Give the backbone structure.
Amino acid sequence: MTDLNLTFAPLLPWPLLAALALLATMALILGATLGQRATLFRAFALALALAAMTDPSLVREKRDPQKSVVAVVLDRSESQNFGARAQQTEEARKGLEAALAKFGDVETRVVSVTNDASGNDGTKLFGALEQALKDVPPERVGAALLVTDGVVHDIPAKAEALGFRAPVHALITGREGERDRRIELVEAPRFGIVGKEQTVRARVVDTGGDGARAPITVRRDGEQLPTYSPVPGDVVNIPVKITHGGANIVELEVPPAPGEITLADNKAVLSIEGVRDRLKVLLVSGEPHPGERSWRNLLRADANVELVHFTILRPPEKLDVTPASELSLIAFPTADLFGRKINEFDLIIFDRYSNQTLLPSIYFDNIARFVENGGAFLAAVGPDYATAQGLYYSPLENILPARPEGALYEQPFKARVSKDGEKHPVTRGLPGAKADPPQWGEWFRQVDADVLKGNSILSGARDKPLLVLSHEGKGRVALLLSDQIWLWARGFDGGGPNADLTRRLAHWLMKQPDLEEEALRAQARGRDVTIERQTLKDEAAPVRATAPSGATQQLTLRQSEPGLWRAGLDAKEMGLWRFESDGLTALVNVGPANPREFREVASTTEKLQPLAEATGGTVRRLSKSSDAVTLPRIVEMTDASRYGGADWIGIRQTGASTLVGVETAPLGLGLWAMLALLSVVVTAWAWEGKR
């Protein structure tokens, strides 16, 4: 391919050349007016001189023609898996590639688009189109062919934003008039206070439906809640009580409609993180002692703890004539604390409180019922626990996990994490525990006791139980068989993990999910799901995983640290996954609660119509009545305002080329130009010499 052009490279600026031409013209006009001979020869000579100063040249360019680039963008997002859409997309790809291959001047670029890992970005075809054409000059783009269901989430507002001037054609998969019913979250709270209700706002959308009411089934952590039946399109308020700390998984589900294209969007899942309001703690100290202040300071240091603290200043066995009113600021309100208001507390702590006559037996019964009904009780006992006046010999006997043996060890010892304690989340990984002996300060007193139930997670003098935890009914009990944990808090002999241990202990008593000794948990990051089994057993049973579609698989867990077993899963499906092992269940939602990809799944020609028409392109369905694909004819065209008809689509014939060489031939320089100018001057001089 060769182009021939005339170019100029003036030796003087164009304004100066124009001025010289004007002067020459005026001189010639004057000469003609005076009747001078050879005026025409002078004009020709001046014209040649001025032309030479423009340095004219003939330029011949050698170009290689370039192919027009046609981008074929295939939508392979999750919504394209419904019905026969995936098959239609593949058939369209093969047909388009075959048709475009027949044109010798067309380069085809095929790009497939999937959802991102979160699934909340929707279908982004135009971002992929931009990437596919980023190394192509705009003038080489012949067309963009999109094979999609029509639900695209990054459609440019204007055709100019595409960066090229070529038609965009959309070939729509699916069928016209598809029906889809889905549940849509309007407002989904992320956090809620334990024991309080949060409101989830949702609506049913029934595309292609008849407007009949559709029931919404509500579940919280798998537990059935009341059902609602709104009219499609109406927003319904659904109250959900937050029952525990951590993730509360809420499922909303509507039944399938007749002829519905997919059930993937009939369920919406959200996770509401349960957080506790201020923890209300009742601390009762049996008598003043060095460790009393450490418990009080520890609890008061936590802004989320509301502490009520009473100290028994004078035990009943201490007789003197001093009136009780002069020994305390206020009377001990036993009837209020252990009667009418006991259920207002989350945790009751007895610090060196013995079975004194101050509390009648009925109040100990109330404490036992408080625990059975879900409350938490912590007893840090002293020497009295080894005697008949100890708490064990009271109505609390039924909830205390260790029976005193009558002995009291008063000797130096270091607390050690027991075998069960190595697996228990309360004591696993305590700083300094792995050293032998532990890098903790010594204690000097411990009550000898025999564990009746629960787990001993710390051992002390003579390897006897030191800290015992147990479940009682719906509640929990912790028993610390020494009153000297305060030595760690004071830093004696190097101190110890006082803050870590007591904080974990309080959270375990409050049923913090990450401190359960027997638990199955699942966490999703994108499509990567980590399954974690916490257990005190020597082995962890396999986990049965159930996908949102109902497909199941078995996962084998591997121990990562004592008491903790893990497995990984690459979740191919978005939605609610269920994991089961040893009677435990964990739920996790893969992807967002209300995925953008599934908010609209009925195929449509309307969304891409404005952009396609603005570029001269067309939007048409690949299938009319059946799932069979009918492709339009592809025609090459020069620039036009419309690139499509009833059964054909056009691609722009760009005519682009690449410059490979240039040949230049100067016209105003060289020997022949000088001879031409000299001959004209000599001819004019000779003509004037004739008289």
